Amino acid sequence: MSQDGWNTLLVLGGIRSGKSEFAESLVADAPTVRYLATAADPGDDPEWAARLAAHRARRPETWSTEETATDPRRLADVISNARPEETLLVDDLGGWVTVLLDPAHQPADDTATVDELAAAVRSCAARLVLVSPEVGLSLVPTTPLGRAFTDALGAVNRAVADACDSVVLVVAGQPCRLKPAVVQPTPADSAPATPAPSAATVPAQNGPAAAPVPAQPGPTGQSPVAPGGPPLPGSPPVTTPQVPAEPAAETVGTGWTAPTTGLPVAAAGLVIQPGMELPMPDEYAGPQAVERLAGLDVPGTGLGALEQVISFAAATQGTPTPTPWRSVRVLLVHGDHAGGVAAGTVTGESDRRAEQARAGQGVLARLAAESGASLQVVDAPAAAPIEHGPALDPEQVDSALRYGWRLAEEAADAGVQLLVLAACGAGAEATAAAVLAATAGAEPPAVLARVVTSGGEIDDVAWMARCAAVRDALHRTRRSSRDAVHVLAELGGGDIAVATGILLGATARRLPVLLDGPVGVASALISRDLAGQARHWCLLADDGGHPAVRLAADVLGLDPLTQLRLDLGEGANALTVLPLLRSALALSAALPDRPEGDDSESGEVEPVEETEPDFHEPEPEGPGPTTTAPAAEPAETSAARAS
């Protein structure tokens, strides 16, 4: 079963819309599935029999099939009696209504049966996916039986949709979320006391979906609590900086107390833990894209190192002809660390940077504006001194991971095509070094960058204080588990935990991420230990000459796209490189293929047939020619050599 949070889901769609294939993809990872087939016997209709055979052929051998066509009321009984550990797929309610009706049987006589089905869906303890045709968009049938069918099916769809946690409409193979509706950020001056539930998750094409579990209302004056974990913060506002940037009144995040509902916490008890199975990029599209580059009509030898960008984009987009990322969102994770890891930092500097970004000012906002990217500032919980005790408690780590996951899902739901992970926080670099030491066996002094003051001077005393803090933290946890979640709790802190959740959520939604700093690579190391697929969705823009980024990149197998040694702040370095990456993708997508017969790329030269000239200039008398070029061979000697 995929790591998601829905329990009951209705999939609607027209004829040949792909609704059944989409519904099957939602439960594809379940160990066993009870497939409830509702269609009546096809009789002597070969076309209908072929359709049913195609459905059967798609089902894995581990699925069991149960026929409910003989007794319509049996479907409600099966759903009501299903156990929590089971997964049910009903395909489809149109067949169920067909059996329920006959020419003399009107829909009004079966309202009790429809109510029974809706009640069974509402109380179902198992994971349940129901498929149903959407016929309400067609013309009113011209026959009494046709009208009876559409009326009955419309009533069934409305009742079941009301009972389900989530509803998805599939149009031309594309899933569109109907329930719950998208909730837009509300300004602070008009925000309700209780944050609205976040949007449900609808997967990208070919991927699993996650729909939300409704939040449990909490006591008066408190935020509701999401099932499966402690409260989580509401999503901060997303801004789109403009050029020139003008300060605008922006909403500050609602704090670390609001809930999340569209996350991988299911009623069955699934949590973010090591060994999660998340999607991988297309293994064929990348090589095909690089092979295609060799045939483009370019005067030189191609894009050089930027072929890596084409391959990455092709694999993550699932096509040999990738297009530039048009919709980009920058997630600036802001979280401070107390203790020696923050030695040498100016008090309040990270808060100033975060507020500057919220106001659409500063380096990050300016670069985001130039790139047409939206910007979201994410406040992470502050971390305690790691040399004295854990940075966070386990509940905070779980909340931070799920919070980051939700932010990635909301970006995917908004149509974002690329995430840029940015970070600012006192002590973040030294904390990332501690995580790197714990997960990759690095020596802290070797991965701790020099501390440079605001005046440009090197502060060796602060650097030694950071080294000592990381050393003491590693000594304190020397006998502790190196489990990914445990490392986050003991050493990582809130910003790295939120960033890890972002990478996991982006992986689940097939959303690529651009990294460029220590927090990003530290979270990539942690996410790799939770789901090995996560690192394949990451692209490293520039290592900035940072020793921790260099080592982590080597461990992760990420080659920096550039070596510009940029140090504009984590995230700003990636935005600086982004226009170059977009240009490479645009060029590869727009250039035509080389004309046929042009073999210039192979380096071969067409042989020129040698012919004997009709006249030879007689050799002058004297010392001979002054040129040092060798004399031409006689035609006979040339012919013999060629043979």
Low-confidence stretches: 104-108, 182-229, 245-270, 600-605, 624-633, 635-643
Percentage of residues in helical conformation: 25-40%
Q: How many β strands by DSSP?
A: 13
Number of helices: 20
Strand content: 5-15%
Oligomer type? single chain
Whole-number mean pLDDT? 78
Which class best fits the helix and strand makeup? alpha/beta
Radius of gyration: 31 Å
Distance between the termini: 70 Å
Outline: globular
- Sheet with most strands: strand arrangement: 3-2-4-5-1-6-7
Report the biggest beta sheet as strand number plus sense, adding barrel if it closes. Answer: 7 strands, mixed
Report what the structure shows:
With 643 residues, the protein is an alpha/beta fold. It contains 20 helices and 13 strands. It has helices spanning 19-26, 46-58, 73-81, 93-100, 111-122, 144-163, 285-293, 307-317, 349-358, 362-371, 394-413, 428-440, 444-447, 460-476, 484-492, 494-508, 518-530, 547-556, 572-590, 635-642; strands at 8-13, 34-37, 64-67, 87-91, 127-133, 166-171, 174-179, 238-239, 328-334, 374-379, 418-424, 513-515, 538-540. Strands 3-2-4-5-1-6-7 form a seven-stranded mixed β-sheet, with helices on both faces. It has a six-stranded mixed β-sheet with strand order 8-10-9-11-12-13, sandwiched between helices. Strand 12, helix 17 (518-530) and strand 13 form a beta-alpha-beta unit. The longest helix is centred in the N-terminal third of the chain and has 20 residues, at 144-163. The radius of gyration is 31 Å and the shape is globular.
